[in-house]
Amino acid sequence: MVIPPSFSFIKKGKVHLLVKEEYKNLLVRLGIEDLETFIKRYQGTNRYFTGRTPHPSIPLENDNRMVLRQYSHGGLLRSITRDLYLFGSRSFQELALTQAILSCGIPTLQPIGAIHRFIFPFFYRAYFLSLEIPRAIDLTNFLQKIGSHPSCDNLILKRKIIQSAGHLLRQFHQAGFFHGDLQLKNILVAGEQILLIDFDRSYRKSSLSIQERMKNLLRLNRSVEKWKRFGLPITQTDRWRFFSAYAEGDVKIREAMKKALRNYPLHSFFDRLGWDIEKILGANGPRALRT
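-> structure tokens emitted (291 positions)
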């Protein structure tokens, strides 16, 4: 395990923690190793961000708030293993990678800790702690608020945000990072700033191949297609504005994107079928912060 600079490793029984030095004494004093008690202590002042599981936002000192995200499986494994993991140290790996991303000047969350809690031999639960970014919303909620018929000012803002997202993703890829779950929910908007979040199963190489870049871009395009089916107001022009900002005149990238998008409808057939079933069953579309 690599311990990033300015972080400390703490072991308390079955709980292993990586904690940022400036928050170590505070979190230990508040009993962070006993999460159930810790969360209940602030039950009346917590608010929740929606995700695969609700993420409580807990007040800290100096008007800061901490978001506590618990890892859980998606897909077919979700109903079997839920939030249990076998071997590895996912939260520690994500924390180290997030710190590396920050060191490259790429806007993201400020991590303050990670928790690895053993349940029984070889199985554990994992948690990621970060500072809440005030008034930040994900890209689905931003586009939903802008609406289908934005005012002139909102249209200008929408175009600026989409272009900024394209530039940010190119910067991310240029630094050798691959996002393990690139989707609209993992792009935050805070005022006019764009941030990438949630780097579980992400990685870094000396440089990404065009194929890896296209895999990330198509994963994001898949997310766009899904949310459009739930009524998200995003247009084909919006999509090409993002791609153009990402390519920045790179002919090879443009050609690779055109080829990937030509082949996309065939590969996405089963995705579209699943989304239609979700709509029929009444699955929810984009959701905002719950308080």
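The CA atoms of residues 214 and 260 lie 7 Å apart.
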